[in-house]
Design brief:
CATH superfamily of one domain in chain A: Alpha/Beta hydrolase fold, catalytic domain
Helix content of chain A: 40-55%
Order of helices and strands of chain A: HHHEEEHEHEHEHHHHHHHHEEEHEHH
Strand content of chain A: 5-15%
Radius of gyration of chain A: 23 Å
Helix content of chain B: over 70%
Number of strands of chain B: 0
Number of helices of chain B: 10
Largest sheet of chain A: 8 strands, mixed
Structural class of chain A: alpha/beta
CATH class of one domain in chain A: Alpha Beta
Distance between the termini of chain A: 55 Å
Order of helices and strands of chain B: HHHHHHHHHH
Strand content of chain B: under 5%
Strand order of the largest sheet of chain A: 1-2-4-3-5-6-9-10
Oligomer: heterodimer
Shape of chain A: globular
Amino acid sequence: MSETRPQAGQDTSSSAAALPIRITPDGLLREMQQVSEKLTRGSRRLSEYTEDQLAIATTPKDEVWRQDMVRLYRYRPTVDRPERVPVLLAYALVGRYQMIDLEPERSFVRKLLGEGLDVYVVDWGHPTRAQRWLTIDDYVSGYLDDCVELICQRHGVDKINLLGVCQGGVFTTCYAALFPEKVKNLVLTVTPIDFHGDQAEPEAGAGAGYMNLWARALTPEDIDLMVDTLGTATGASVGFSFLMMNPVGNVAKYTTELVDMLDDDAKMLGFLRMERWIGDRPGHPGEVMRQWFKDLYQANKLVRSELELGGRRVDLNQIRMPVLNVYAQGDVIVPTSCTRGMQGKFGTDDYSELAVPGGHIGTFVGGKAQKVLAPSIAKWLRERN
Amino acid sequence: MFSDKALEGSQASESLYAWWLDLIPSLFGGSAPKAPAPADETSPLPFPLGQVSQALALTQQLLGPLYQAYFQSMVAHPEPGKAFIAFQELMQGQLQKASEGFAGIGQTLTAVQDGGWSLMRAPMPMYGQAMEPLSLNLERAYGGLADAFGLAPSRELQAAGRELAAAALARQQARAEYMGLIVGALAKGCEGLLARLRVMGEKGESVDSLLALVRVWSRAVDEAMHAAMQSPKALEAAAKLVRATTRAREQQQRMVAIASEALNVPTRAEVDDAYREIQELKREMRRLRKSVGLAAAPVPAAVAPAVAAASSSPKGRAPAPARSRTSPRAPAAKRKKTSKVIPS
């Protein structure tokens, strides 16, 4: 692009005249005045919002189990006779589960309930330093298995449906491979399975797959040192890594994009609720982080069925139940090349894929994706329940 | 019913917001405005209203000089295109200066080990730096004698301090190198802006306001930034930064460990060992529990009534059927334990 920049001393008259800049002094002064007034109005409006207006995850639910910092909730069904086989939703550890129920108008959970599903969600909570030794196996064979057992018991069934999101999708994949007898159907959403998929098929979108590149740029010793000195990574440090994945976008978000939405109450509230979710970033247990980066990002053991949890191999061929794999077309956090095209990697004959518009988070809160996601998942499950 | 109003992690995130909102203006040579105080001091603004208010004040602070600079360019160059070029060169010049500044810091840091006090704010690296010449001489002359008098911890502390100083310096250098790349990418984005504007012109589109121009600029910079960050050079710099940061943290922890041991206070490693033992015991308990078919821990009594009420269903739904006795898994008698505390 450097050839487009006029060199010092070069006559820029012709190139300058060709630029589509139509800013006039009068227009500039008027704009400055308007923006200033808008910012003042926006500041005033911000001070008027109440706690209730900012509340997220408001869909009624009840706590049915807890252990350490982990909670299991059951959402209150909204139909008279929900589907007999319930769905357990597992979110990632790097964010809180509230993303699936950000606000009433953009709630993935409400839509699933509306489709007649019986939905449970596991809240991984906020791990502290005391939880630094938790491994992926503790999550999968421990907390997740306890949740599944409990739900089976409550509903008098032998197996349930699992729905995993991102890292939670990796956990449910491992679970389905280790405990296939307890999983009726497996739904994966924006879940990385082939962590090196981006090498074979580099992503085109700006910033796509940065986490993959970053993780591979480190040595295994770097990861060890990071985990040994951090213990449990704080929520702020996890948030920092996401912030730095898109520095310019995050500057724009808190400046120009903010100005654009100041006069739009609905947009502003949506923004504030999203910030509230982002701000509630949990810490990440060190040992999970070690396995996540070394075994998955670096050694890509999951897709090769080489990952070991608690001394047992996670063999994807054991996943013989139906699998629905949902990926976001514009996902830059989990590149689509790492998640789609997994047919043949699992042992199942019933494998389906669903592409939804939008990005990683947009899958659950974006307007277009919302129209597709919950109805498609519900239909797919109904056909197999 | 569970309420999600209490956001446990938001407190920790406040520091991240503060850091980020402070970083944005510093890239442009300014400083962030303070977060506005709530009207009623006794009831703080709900999260994240304070942080977003601060971002608004920051936006005002950034846009003000931008409007002024653009207006001055327009006064000097009445033709809009030329005014833009002059403005753009001014901006690019500032970014270039910042970029050189960061790169310069990286180069200078290695040469300031004797007197770079202003660059070292953390007290422990400063301690290590200050003690280095003295402690080295003392070590050579009286090391063995000091050990005999039980002064080993203080000598160890001094040695660790020296290593921390070196690690902190390496971290500063790695940070400066990384920031240099980031700011360099910002400058490159300005070049991309011209290309984007030409494409817009060819399509018959125009830019009628400064905010619209900033948006186009931001998209161009975004593209340049991602390209730069994904380059092998930047990935190497990022890895170097991680390495340097964790090594500095390791040295800090070592100093704290030496001091803790000297004062007979449990060290981080000892506490971690205790945590590990607890975790292993929990695993063992889980294995035993599962081997005898016991269900998971119950919901505490305080929560259980809500579960019971909820399970009676808002629409009079029939309770979940009991598990079949012929179920191949845990014996029914064992399962009763859980169903007592978690009624369906």
